[in-house]
Every structure is written in C-alpha cells, then in structure tokens.
Specification:
The chain is an alpha+beta fold. The protein contains three helices and six strands. Strands 2-1-3-4-5-6 form a six-stranded antiparallel beta sheet, with no helix packed on it.
C-alpha cells in the first residue's frame, strides 16, 4: 500500500514538473519582433492575390502588430511563396514569403536585425502566422 501511494505521489510530481517545464519553454519563445526591429519600419509593399501595392499607415501598424507576435518555429522547412511582403526597415529591405491561409512565414537570415539564439547554420527561418491571412490586405487610398 505504501509503495502504491509513493508511486502515485511520484508520478504526480513528474507530471507537475513536466507541465512547469513546458510553461517555461513557452515563455521564452522567440518572436519575429525579437529578431526584426519593427520600430524602424518605413514602408511595406504587399504582393498578394489582390495585386501589388503599398500599405497605408493604418495597415502598416496592423501588420507590424501581427508580425511582432509571430513565434519562431525551430527545425521547420516549408515551401512558401505565393505571397511576398517587402518591408523597408531603416533603409534595408526585409523580404517575407508566405501563401494564402499559410501557417508560417519564411524570412532569410539577412533580413534579421538580431539572431537571438537562432540556429547560426540556417539561411531561412520560419514563424507561425497565428492565423493571419495576408490576402486580407487590399489596396486602400
């Protein structure tokens, strides 16, 4: 009986440790905003199913908020490309590829302003879109 009780307590302890570990990993995730300085965003040109156009100030602020929260997905490779977003940040081009209803964006290492524990041997990095559909951006006057 004591052995069963000990095993039960031990298993509960292991489960609680595993859950705590998972929460700590989640809290230390790297976002697109951590590795690309969006505060210096000057211009955005969107290439999607609606055509090619420059985002207005309101659209840029919305996109900046959406991009900044996208979490880095380690060890992922996905074929993307029907949507292209060109960001001009502090005079430098930053290209992002995605597609309609995609779960990820793709960005080249040359577009990053900081590497923040990202794998140094990779050329491309992927971030979760959190459900953002870049085709919802349309040309506005």
């Amino acid at each position: 009986m004591k052995l069963k009780l000990f095993l039960l307590v031990y298993i509960m302890f292991l489960v609680s440790c595993a859950q705590t570990e998972h929460k700590n990993i989640k809290n230390t995730s790297i976002t697109f905003g951590d590795v690309v300085d969006l505060s210096k965003l000057e211009k955005v040109t969107m290439h999607n199913n609606s055509g090619t156009f420059v985002l207005n100030t309101k659209q840029m602020e919305k996109l900046k908020g959406e991009l900044s929260k996208m979490e880095y997905e380690k060890d992922l490779t996905v074929k993307l490309g029907s949507i292209y977003i060109e960001l001009i940040i502090d005079g430098k081009k930053c290209g992002i590829s995605s597609r309609t209803h995609a779960n990820y964006i793709e960005v080249h290492k040359n577009s990053l302003t900081e590497t923040k524990d990202l794998s140094a041997d990779r050329d491309w990095f992927y971030f979760k879109t959190n459900g953002v559909n870049f085709d919802n951006y349309k040309k506005q006057i």
